[in-house]
Amino acid sequence: MRLWRVAQEKEYWADVWGEGMRKFDVPEVYARIAEHVPMGSSVADLGCGTGLLLQRLTMERDCHAVGYDFSDQALSFARKLFLPVIELDLRNLTPDDIAGADVVTLAFTLEWIPDPVRHRILEACKDKLCVVAMTPRWTISTHLHG
């Protein structure tokens, strides 16, 4: 089974975050993402994991940031940091879920999502600034979907 297919399952991420694995804690990448987010923005962080990017955006960019993820373990960690997070499987994302956001961040998220769902997520981001970080090259791109 291909890794991206396995990574769509909650059980995969339960194992990842349940072991305390912080491999997605990459402060230098989060700093580069934050540079692209305007001060004071309203941000929806899709696939927020443990919320470390949310924390940075809130503290350093004065953003109102809300995270979305489907991993109970990751969300539990984020809640211990008093971060606003919502349990949501991105396969079920609708434009209404992120209607209040000016900016959408996707840090290490899109590469785990198959094309039809990825297209629907990007469509939900219409008229928003999207800041996307992708592995394995840690590339960051910004797009205004309109």
3D structure, described in words:
The chain is of the alpha/beta class. It has one domain (3-145): Rossmann fold (3-Layer(aba) Sandwich), CATH 3.40.50.150. It is built from 6 helices and 6 strands; from the N terminus they run H-H-H-E-H-E-H-E-E-H-E-E. It has helices at 3-6, 10-18, 27-35, 52-61, 72-80, 115-124; strands at 42-46, 64-69, 85-87, 103-107, 128-134, 139-145. A 6-stranded mixed sheet has the order 3-2-1-4-5-6, with helices on one face. Strand 4 (103-107), helix 6 (115-124) and strand 5 form a beta-alpha-beta unit. The longest helix is centred in the middle third of the chain and has 10 residues, at 52-61. Residues 1-5 have low confidence and may be disordered.
Question: Which descriptors apply to this entry?
Answer:
146 residues; alpha/beta; Rossmann fold; six-stranded mixed beta sheet; single chain
CATH topology: the name is Rossmann fold
Q: Tell me the domain tally.
A: 1
> How much is the radius of gyration in Å?
14 Å
Output the helix-strand order: HHHEHEHEEHEE
Strand content: 15-25%
Number of DSSP E strands:
6
The CATH superfamily label reads: Vaccinia Virus protein VP39
What is the CATH class name? Alpha Beta
CATH architecture: 3-Layer(aba) Sandwich
Cα separation of the termini: 36 Å
Number of helices: 6
Class computed from helices, strands and strand pairing: alpha/beta
Strand order in the sheet with the most strands:
3-2-1-4-5-6
Bulk shape: globular
Determine the fraction of residues in helical runs and give it as a percent range: 25-40%
Q: Report mean pLDDT, rounded to a whole number.
A: 82
Low-confidence stretches: 1-5
Biggest sheet overview: 6 strands, mixed
